[in-house]
Amino acid sequence: MVGAGFATGREIIVFFGDLGILSPVLAGVLMGAFAGLFIAAGKTVARLGRDGSIAATAARGGFCCVNVVGVAATVLIFATMTAGLEQLLARLTGVEHLGVAAALAAVALAGKDLRGVGAVNLILVPALAAMILYLAAKSEQTGESLPVAIYPSVSYCAMNMLLGGVLVSKDAEEASAAEICCISAASGCVMAALLAGVYVVSMGYADFAMPLFEFCRDIGAGFVGAAIAITAILTTLVGAAKTLRDGFAKMLGSGVSASCAVAMLALASSKLDFASAVDGFYPLIGAAASAVVIGIIPVFVASMLSVRRPSIRSVNLFRRRR
After folding, report:
1. Predicted TM-score (pTM) of this structure
2. Can you tell me the distance from the alpha carbon of 277 to that of 8, in angstroms, rounded to the nearest whole number?
3. Quick one: which of 7, 191, 298, 310 is 20 to 30 A from 87 by CA?
């Protein structure tokens, strides 16, 4: 999920600060590896269906745990994105409440079919990546090659996998092992490059709420920074709103009540300070996500191995039928 924290450079500064460029690079590589793991686990769950075996139950339980914690984290991230969009649009236009209006529109869209948003993302995400790498090339900073800091890299990766892991695991039944490996490797390379790019651009503006945007303004490309931030926030805001609406609907038993709850969250979020929200919320989400994501790795691996290795009972049944 490319949200306000990433697109403005704020969360990169919060997690990696003066740790050097190798730490965000490691985080990107880990994100690719975890994406492959979630896709493989999703394929396992799809193959097992509603099987009552221990492996199937454990895999479904792992995804359920990720979903529950993910919804809780999305509350904070949705609030932060709404605050960031509100402050950025007010600064650009001088008009207040535009960010809140956009968040309410995202809530309205959350109850609709979002395949169109996915199609838009297929165009916007590569465009955003190209703009970020262009800005990194324009930066005079290179980033120090300091020793890798493991925990910030792991917690940043876990935070993003907590939100995106379930999404990438869907529709994975047809993916072959080779395709999963290719997806994992490509994702890791792309994310490592993007994180390194945002880090290089943002490190000279760490004292600002939106480092990447401030860098763009200084080189006379403020519209590029604004476009990156606004586009990333809007597309992700819709996805976050849908995640919350679906999660709240299960708890409240009503889609309308769930939409109202998310709309109230959007209205309340306009009063948040964006930089303070990122600085306060994201490290907490990273810590919780690390515990959850790392904890389910053995569960997913054991479930996948059990599918590859048929049980003695299954082998005996096969022999009897022959």
Report:
1. 0.83
2. 13
3. 191
Distance of alpha carbon 322 from alpha carbon 310, whole angstroms:
17
pLDDT digits (tens, 9 = 90+) for 185-225: 998 999 999 999 999 999 889 899 899 889 999 988 888 88
Q: Which pLDDT value is given to residue 64?
A: 81
Distance CA 36, CA 25 (A): 17
- The first and second tokens of residue 136, run together, are 């990194």
- What tokens were used for 14? 């919060």
Domain parsing of the chain, residue ranges? 4-309
Phi/psi of residue 146, nearest 5 degrees: -80, 165
- Identify the residue whose tokens are 């269906």: 49
136-179: per-residue pLDDT in tens? 888 877 666 678 889 999 999 999 887 777 667 665 667 788 88
DSSP assignment of 131-195 equals: HHHHHHHH-S-----PPP-HHHHHHHHHHHHHHHHHHHHTT-TT--HHHHHHHHHHHHHHHHHHH
Does the pLDDT at position 116 exceed 70?
Answer: no
CB 106 within 8 A of CB 244: no
Cβ contacts of 42-49, under 8 Å, gap ≥ 24: 42/168, 42/169, 42/170, 42/172, 42/173, 43/172, 43/173, 43/175, 43/180, 44/300, 44/303, 44/304, 44/307, 45/169, 45/303, 46/172, 46/173, 47/173, 47/307, 48/303, 48/307
CA angle 238, 165, 278 (to 5 degrees): 60
Which residue from 169, 152, 110 is spatially nearest to 289, judged by alpha carbons?
152
Over 60: is that where the pLDDT of 9 sits? yes
- The DSSP 8-state label assigned to residue 204 in this structure reads G
Q: Is-contact 6 159, C-beta < 8 A?
A: no
Of 117, 41, 75, the closest CA to residue 298 belongs to: 41
Q: Token digits for 314?
A: 């299954």
DSSP-derived letter for residue 205 is G
